[in-house]
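Students often ask why we bother encoding 3D structure as a string. The short answer is that it lets us treat folding as translation between two languages. Here is a chain of 237 residues written in the first language.
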Amino acid sequence: LSLFLYAVQPTECFLTQPEEEQESTAKAKKRKKKKISDILEKSAPKPGVPKDLQDLLSQHFDARRSVIEIEELKLPDSCFLPANDLTHSFSSYLKEICPKWAKLRKNHKETKSVVILVICSSALRSLELIKSMTAFKGDCRVLKLFAKHIKIKEQMTMLEKGIFHIGVGTPGRIKALVEQDGLCLNSTKYMILDWNWRDQKLRRMMDIPEIKKETIDLLELRIIKLCREGSVKLGLF
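And here it is in the second language, the structure alphabet:
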């Protein structure tokens, strides 16, 4: 009997080892999260539409606001401009949504404000968009509204002393300028979100948690109210 037990003991140890390894491998796979780039590489890019932003705002606010507050933060379909179908350059898109740009540009006389506000994910992307709007902007002044290498006081001074028609920058800096009364949105007619562009990791601006939060904060701060009043139109480029 003792010899029999001794003989089968190694067999029992050998049988349990693969099960432990399988369990460990399963846990490791479960812990590994799917990256946004892994998902996007397998799917064709789809152009953003107003419902995408509306759904994103609903998901963000639903757990944080009362029913009445949520209703006040809803964006009506009427506040949206035609969305980019991924065939446009930035200049051609701006020409489509703002056919009377020459007149708007000429009539804009207010300091501390811009007619068109463009929101994107980084300083580098802001510079790319500024370069790519040459065919549209004509004889107007464009202001960089991001934090990299530019102090907020410098931007506030420029806005106070000069007339600027287009502002291009990041949501965090633009929100700070609005909060500090450096940028007034009452003269703004168009707000464009750089919605479809993807960085090297294939992330859109709303796929980056910090940029997403800052953009929603900016929208809630003033833009949603202006959209609901009809003075600002939103575009997804």
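Translate back mentally: Residues 174 and 198 are 21 Å apart (CA to CA). Keep this in mind for the problem set.
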